[in-house]
Amino acid sequence: xxxxxxALVHTGALAHNLARARRAAPDARLWAVVKADAYGxxxxxxxxxxxxADGFALLDLAEAERVRALGWRGPVLLLEGVxxxxxxxxxxxxxxxxxxxxxxxxxWLAAHRTADxxxxxxxxxxxxxxxxxxxxxxxxxxxxxxxxxxxxxxxxMTHFADADGPRGIEPQVRAFAAVTRDLxxxxxxxNSAAILRHHGxxxxxxxxxxxxxxxxxxxxxxxxxxxxxxxxxDAAHWGLEPAMTLRTRLxxxxxxxxxxxxxxxxxFAAERAMRIGIxxxxxxxxxxxxxxxxxxxxVDGMRTTTVGRxxxxxxxVDLSGLPGAGIGSEVxxxxxxPGGSGGAVLPIDAxxxxxxxxxxxxxxALARRVPVRAVD
Length: 376
Ligand SMILES: *Cc1c(COP(=O)(O)O)cnc(C)c1O
Hints:
Layout: E1 6-10, H1 11-24, E2 29-33, H2 35-39, H3 43-50, E3 55-58, H4 61-69, E4 76-78, H5 87-94, E5 97-100, H6 103-110, E6 118-124, H7 135-147, E7 151-158, H8 170-180, E8 187-190, H9 192-198, E9 215-219, E10 244-256, E11 261-262, E12 268-269, E13 274-279, E14 296-299, E15 302-307, E16 315-318, E17 330-336, E18 345-346, H10 348-354, H11 359-364, E19 372-375
Parallel strand pairs: 1-19, 2-3, 2-9, 3-4, 4-5, 5-6, 6-7, 7-8, 8-9
Antiparallel strand pairs: 1-10, 10-13, 10-17, 11-12, 13-16, 14-15, 14-17, 15-16, 17-18
Helix pairs in contact: 1-3, 4-5, 7-8
């Protein structure tokens, strides 16, 4: 028998969450963001649940090639654009849309030979200071790009730094709107947090409405069933279902006496007699080593906590109050417990929080040695 750990990708949940994004922005077109191999779910596995998107947004030419290999003929957008001039050959061949965020990318396009004009999104740095033209140089970049014979449609794009938090998006929306107000073209501004927290019926923050062009929202993390603004809101609050389950089984139990310790560094000491279980999952499977004693976990669908340090291949769970649990009991590290859609759910966000990180990182860090299966 193989080691009992496995990950499940719930394609029905992906479809449900995508539909949730569409309900939040019904008049916008919807990018399913599938960078980082669909946030660790696997592009090919996730595709079955995401094919009702209007397009796929990602970073990597090899990933774009995989989306085309699945038979997708619709829009595919490179969110960071091209990395060197040669990439434009692949863009032309695969008919990709690409982000233009710096002068060099415009220079490369001006020197590129293509029969079909490219569909591009010009990115504004409206305050996040990663990619894009600052507001004061945006219109000059737009004019130059728009005049190139290599370019067809020019969409307008920016990205929010604080859509999930108290700072909000208003300063960035104002900067973006002030410079783009009279420019033609599609807008694309919203990530998951902006879709859920800041959107009107047409998919755009109010101050950007009324320009007449079609718009695109970019749904990433919400598609995978994690709340972008946890713990202020959880996935259930937003009507999202977990798209990934990581589960394993107990491979041993131990009866502890008061004062007995558990695992490396003896980081946990029993205050009373108690029973623990040893689950076949460790940090080499992608479970976060920083998740200390008290991290939530399900055993046979019942909520309990981890005890002691996570080791490479194992972690320990508290079996107090679970007299029926033993070797072979199902352990849910995150996602859906046993019992299907009516059963218990352990949000990946709760595990991430206990480890001082976010759901995004845990799903992307699922280790290669864990077998993954798509289920509906
Ligand atoms: C990753 C990414 C997104 C998706 O963000 P989520 O928070 O996962 O919804 C949207 N836009 C850009 C530019 C991104 O890089």
